[in-house]
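thought: user wants a sequence for this fold. calling inverse folding tool.
action: design(structure=
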C-alpha cells in the first residue's frame, strides 16, 4: 500500500491567493476562534463538577434527605443534609451505608458517632434510646455532616427530576452556543 500526498499548486501559492495565517496577530486570531466567555463558563462548570463529585463515586461531596425522625431535633423530616469526606471522631454526625449483614444493608443512614475508633464506630440517632445494632468502619462512611437546609428535601426532589435536569441542561447548552452580539452582527452583515 502506497500513501500518496496531494500535490501543491505552486501557481496558486505564488499568486498569493492561497490560504495563509498571519502569525503577527495570533492572539487576535485565537480570540476570534475561541469564545472567552464560553471558555470561562465551561471551566467553571468543570470545577463545580469536580468539587461536587459524589462520594459514592470517589468524590468528597454527598447530600441526603432526612426520611425519618431518628435525628430529631437536630434534623427534621424533609431536611437536606450536606456532607463532606473528612476524618471522623466521636460526636460527629455522619452519613454512612448500613454494613453488609445488618438490617437494611447498603441503605444510607445519617446518625451520630457515639463511640468506637477507626477499627469500628458505634452510631446512634439523636432521638434514639440505644445505639444502632451495627458497627460501621471508615469505608462505610460517605461523609461528615457540614450543614443542613431545613425542608430542603423538597427543593432537592424537584431538582433531581429528569424534566428539570433536561431543561437546565438545555439552557446551559443554549447559553454556551448562543452567539455574542459581535458575532451575530458579523453574520447578519455577511448575509446581505
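)
observation: tool returned 192 residues.
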Amino acid at each position: 500500500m502506497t500513501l500518496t500526498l496531494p500535490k501543491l499548486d505552486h501557481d496558486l501559492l505564488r499568486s498569493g491567493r492561497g490560504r495563509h495565517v498571519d502569525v503577527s496577530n495570533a492572539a487576535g486570531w485565537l480570540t476570534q476562534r475561541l469564545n472567552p466567555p464560553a471558555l470561562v463558563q465551561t471551566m467553571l462548570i468543570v470545577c463545580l463538577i469536580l468539587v461536587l463529585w459524589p462520594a459514592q463515586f470517589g468524590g468528597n461531596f454527598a447530600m441526603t434527605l432526612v426520611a425519618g425522625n431518628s435525628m430529631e431535633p437536630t434534623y427534621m423530616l424533609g431536611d437536606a443534609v450536606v456532607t463532606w469526606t473528612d476524618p471522623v471522631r466521636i460526636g460527629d454526625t455522619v452519613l454512612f451505608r448500613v454494613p453488609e449483614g445488618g438490617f437494611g444493608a447498603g441503605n444510607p443512614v445519617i446518625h451520630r458517632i457515639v463511640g468506637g475508633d477507626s477499627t469500628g464506630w458505634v452510631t446512634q440517632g439523636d432521638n434514639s434510646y440505644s445505639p444502632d445494632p451495627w458497627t460501621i468502619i471508615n469505608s462505610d462512611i460517605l461523609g461528615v455532616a457540614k450543614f443542613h437546609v431545613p425542608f430542603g428535601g423538597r427543593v432537592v426532589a424537584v431538582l433531581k427530576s429528569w424534566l428539570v435536569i433536561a431543561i437546565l441542561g438545555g439552557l446551559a447548552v443554549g447559553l454556551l452556543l448562543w452567539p455574542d452580539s459581535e458575532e451575530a452582527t458579523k453574520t447578519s452583515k455577511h448575509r446581505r
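thought: summarizing for user.
answer: Here is the designed sequence. The longest helix spans residues 36-51.
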